[in-house]
Structures are given as structure tokens and as C-alpha cells.
# Entry
Amino acid sequence: NAGVTQTPKFRILKIGQSMTLQCTQDMNHNYMYWYRQDPGMGLKLIYYSVGAGITDKGEVPNGYNVSRSTTEDFPLRLELAAPSQTSVYFCASSLQGNYGYTFGSGTRLTVV
Amino acid sequence: GQQVMQIPQYQHVQEGEDFTTYCNSSTTLSNIQWYKQRPGGHPVFLIQLVKSGEVKKQKRLTFQFGEAKKNSSLHITATQTTDVGTYFCAFGSSNTGKLIFGQGTTLQVKP
# Structure
């Protein structure tokens, strides 16, 4: 099992550009999440999904969108990138609620 | 919104010394999870505590959940350089699975 796979690992965007961060898992987990981590800080929840076709906002959803058309994939879309979106983005999954997360290795995004 | 406070923010110890990080909430938690993140890495799940007063051990790591389920601690006995990293506590919702993370405690170990 590959676990949770995130692509790309690194990306530099110019202000106003858009991009999609990819996340896929092969563990048949129902629950998937997107977090961002700013330097020296904890993790903030952006969006989450409890199953295919179901998504909901987390603590910091502004400037982002998600979709969950399959159990495996949970892409995060950034529209009109801003410097405040410079961060490390982690995708995670869990089999059910109240289970430990499996995290991907992260995408380090810089907006200039 | 509901949150947890984690202390200390940083801790530097000599190899062989013990280390403890604390997680405190103003409200009762249904469960608490602990994660470790190595420098430059991603968080890795360590354990989940659910019961009041629960104590669990993993080799040199001891995890506790308070009797009132409002606090938790992670204690490392005789630290090693491999223990370096940031330790996060997190609490969550069983319905949605979403976790709220503490700010983390970063541990440095001097050999």
C-alpha cells in the first residue's frame, strides 16, 4: 500500500495563479482531510470529507475548494493564489471518525 | 471555538533526561490523539486515549488522559536523539472525524 500520496511536493506560484493539489489514498478510507501548517504552528483544517460526494468546510476554508468524486481522491483547488496561502499542505485520511489519521508527505507551496 | 493548549512550546533536554508535554482543554473531551512530526516530515499517529484516567505505554512513551477528560500528557523516559521532533495532541469529533490540533511541543535532544 502506498498510503496517502500527495503531488506535487513543492510548488512556487505567482500571485493570482491557480493550482490543484492532488491527494489520493489506496486504503479505502472513507474520511479525508486537508490541513495547512504554517511555520512553527499547528495544523489548521481547511476542508474535510466523510465520503464520496460529501465535503464540508473546516476552520480556514476561504480561498480554497475541494471535490470528492471518488473514495480515493480528494483534490484541493486554490483559486487566485495569495501570499497568505504560502504554507505546507497536508492531506490525511482515516477509516472512520475517531480513528488515527494517515498523513501524506505534504506539499510545500510558496506564493510570490 | 473549542481548542486545546499545549505546553511547553519548546523543550531542550540532554540525551537521557526525561521529557513531558501537556495538553489542556477548558471543556471535556471525548477522546485525544497524539502525533509526532519529525523535522521536515509529516505527522505520524502515535495513540488515541478514550477513557477517563487511561494510561497507555509504548516502550519509553507514556500517555495519560485525565480523570476529568480535560487534560492529557505524553512523557518520554530517557530521551534519545531519535525522539527529536514536534509532538501534537489533537481532539476530534466521532461523527466527522475532524481533528483540532494543539500548537505542538518541539523537542530538541542534545547528544
Q: What stands out?
A: The first strand of chain B starts at residue 4 and ends at 7.
